[in-house]
Amino acid sequence: MTLPPATVSARDGSLTAAAARGRRKPTLDRISFMAVFLGIPLAIYLLFVIWPFLQAFYYSLTDWSGFSNTSNFVGLDNYARIFTDDLFLKALGNNIILLIVVPLVTVILSLVLATLVTVGGSSKGQIKGLKNSSFYRVVSFFPYTIPAVAIGIMWGQIYDPSGGLLNGVLNAVGLNFKDYAWLGNASTAMWCSIFVIIWGFVGFYMVLFIAGIKGIPSEIFEAARIDGAGRFRTAVSITIPMIRDNIQTAYVYLGIFALDAFVYMASLFPNAGGPENTTLVMSQQLFFTAFQRGQFGMATAMGVVLAVATLIFAGLVFLVNKLTGGSEGGRL
Amino acid sequence: MTLLKQQRASAPAGHVEREAKSAPVDKVVGTVSHVVLAIWSAIVVLPLLWTFMSSFKTSNEIFSSPFGLPGSWKLDNYIRAWSEAGIGAAFMNSVLVVCVSLVLVMLLGSMCAYVLARFKFWGSRTVYWLMLAGLTFPVFLAMVPLFGVLKGIGLLNQLPGLIITYVAFALPFTVFFLFSFFKNLPAEIAEAAAIDGAGDWRTFFQIMLPMARPGLASVAIFNFLGLWNQFLIPVTINAGGPKVLSQELAAFAQQMGYAVDFGALFAAVTVTVIPVLIAYILFQRQLQGSVSQGTSR
After folding, report:
1. Is residue A66 within 8 Å of residue B148, measured between CB atoms?
2. CA distance linking residue A1 with residue B179, whole number of Å
């Protein structure tokens, strides 16, 4: 239902002026419109998102149990206690490993794949992508459509020591990993989990980077080629700088995710924490503290630590991008 | 995709696409690219195929050989997963919750984005920044107090409570994306509608909303995936309520930790994966378009 063009062209100056004048006086139509259009969404948003966020900062200073209506103000006690809690510090350490490895590997891998798809074609004539590459793009995106819980359960079975696909493949090619429990050993559990997380994310960021690379004017690539830049040089000196805002966005989102990682760890390891708590993450610790131990105050303090860590990380990414010559602010 | 087509279309008339002789190095690069991409595709697809195949096997078959084909392609595992493990009921709950939330968040989100994008009023910047805050803060921080809020209004462990929470948490993303969309719609058309006597309500529902359809479709797809895959919110505020799919799946796997009905577990995972995967394959062109739209703004 668009307006017929005749109506648009029938407009003349005096009518526009009349409409503009009418617009200044709030009519009943305008008042009801604003009340409903802004009021309802905003009310829901304030009550269910902003209010809980604000409350979190207060609760983190109390010993609220979540089930009683009373709570005592305890100042920074909760913070002091979680930072001397070995389990929480262990979880924090695990999150930091995730934070360092997951965004870096995911971004590099998806950049490589996106580059192969977009500039893997012939070096003669127009700049071309790789032939028949849309198949790879479609397939790589599959994991993004799968609920993370299903991904976790599926890989839990793949890593299964006796009936799993991984040991099946390894044994079939003659490597003797018979009955090795990938998720049951402290030395491999974390790295296997990281692989699963990367498996789940690469496709999405690959598609995002492909879109970014295709948005670069082809003249730039052609100019670089005329100047004698090879493929690798082009990728490093042109592609990456031109899509640096996309990379920054990807890095921030992946980092925020790595600081959470609750879904993957909860579905990969039915016994929370994994072997020797090598895969315990802060969000899991928060969840148990709140809903099993009933220490809501303590749990929200962990939430605040998580939020602060997220903000620091995002700030660092922006800072690094800016210092290395990226556009100011970028976009999120 | 479209970009490539445009480039081709914009080639000057009379331009003959010569079959350029590929240099040998091109062949090498092309082959290596194909090999690398094929390996990654295999890493993506094989686990899915294996899961699908295993969903037809008995537990014995699963343990005897990970590669063996199922003895018979019977649906026993699916029937057990669907009815006994409660995956069927959870599937229906998920469909209900996600559909209602999606309709609501698209409606409320586009309303809010429209007002923010096209009207100047006192406090509009504040509302905009509040929305940005909701996007950047980790959801985890809100979970514990949210539990209290829902308990307070009596919607804890109920699907309506889950729906309204989904709507609230999907709102900032929706508003942000549609904000730029509404901002870029030509102002003349709204003016013309006003001159023709359409009020704000009619202008929005009959003119602006239909014009924003491409943007709405992209946001709806991402919201659908986000809500369908949601896990943290239901396990926090709906732990004792009628379970949604991701919740039931996790609970099923947890119970299974020691018992043995792996066939049904694989069937449950397959039931979760297949519908969205098929929808994705059917609509993937649109989705690729929306990823590029979302990032080029």
Report:
1. yes
2. 21
Q: How far, in Å, CA of A325 to CA of A308, rounded? A: 26
A45 Cβ under 8 Å from any chain B Cβ: yes
> What is the 3-class SS of B40-107, one letter each residue?
HHHHHHHHHHHHHHHCCCCHHHHHHCCCCCCCCCCCHHHHHHHHHCCHHHHHHHHHHHHHHHHHHHHH
SS3 string, chain A, reads CCCCHHHHHCCCHHHHHHHHHHHHCCCHHHHHHHHHHHHHHHHHHHHHHHHHHHHHHHHCCECCCCCCCCCCECCCHHHHHHCCCHHHHHHHHHHHHHHHHHHHHHHHHHHHHHHHHHHCCCCCCCCCCCCCCHHHHHHHCHHHHCCHHHHHHHHHHHCCCCCCHHHHHHHHCCCCCCCCCCCCCHHHHHHHHHHHHHHHHHHHHHHHHHHHHHCCCHHHHHHHHHCCCCHHHHHHHHHHHHCHHHHHHHHHHHHHHHCCCHHHHHHHCCCCCCHHHCCCCHHHHHHHHHHCCCCHHHHHHHHHHHHHHHHHHHHHHHHHHHHCCCCCCCCC
Q: Quick one: closest CA in B to A163, which residue?
A: B63
Smallest Cβ–Cβ distance between B112 and the set A42, A153, A291 belongs to: A42
With an 8 Å Cβ cutoff, are A286 and B140 in contact?
A: yes
Q: What is the pLDDT of residue A33?
A: 87
d(CA B89, CA B267): 15
Q: What is the dihedral of CA B248, B254, B257, B258, to 10 degrees?
A: -80
Residues B151, B154, B157, B162: what is their CA dihedral angle, to the nearest 10 degrees? Answer: -90
Give chain A's domains with CATH numbers.
5-59 (no CATH), 78-323 (1.10.3720.10)
Q: A59 to chain B, minimum CA–CA distance in Å?
A: 8
Contact A50 B134 (CB under 8 A): yes
The residue to which tokens 């989100």 are assigned:
B109
The pTM of the full predicted model, rounded to 2 decimals, is: 0.85
Q: Are B212 and B178 in contact (CB under 8 A)?
A: yes
Largest CA distance in chain A: 86
Nearest-CB residue to A150 (from B4, B43, B249)? B249
Q: What is the per-residue pLDDT for B30?
A: 83
A153 to B149: CB separation less than 8 angstroms, yes or no? no
Q: Is A287 a residue whose pLDDT tops 70?
A: yes
Q: Above pLDDT 90, what percent of chain A?
A: 41
Distance between CA atoms of residues B96 and A150, nearest Å? 20
CB of A200 less than 8 A from some CB of B: no
CA-atom Rg of chain B in angstroms? 25
Cα distance between residue B281 and residue B262, in whole Å: 28
pLDDT at B203: 86
CA of B297: which chain A residue's CA is closest? A331
Neighbouring-strand partners of residue A73 = A62
Question: Is the CB of residue A31 less than 8 Å away from at least one CB of chain B?
Answer: no
Domains of chain B as residue ranges with CATH: 78-296 (1.10.3720.10)
pLDDT of residue A1: 38
